[in-house]
Amino acid sequence: MASGSIDGVILLWEVNLSVPGHSVETTGKLPGTWGDVKKTALLQNFPNPFNPETWIPFSLSDDTDIKIKIYNAAGNLIRILNLGNKPSGVYISKDKAAYWDGRNEDGESVASDIYFYVMEAGEYKENRKMVIMR
Question: What does pTM read for this prediction?
Answer without folding.
Answer: 0.73
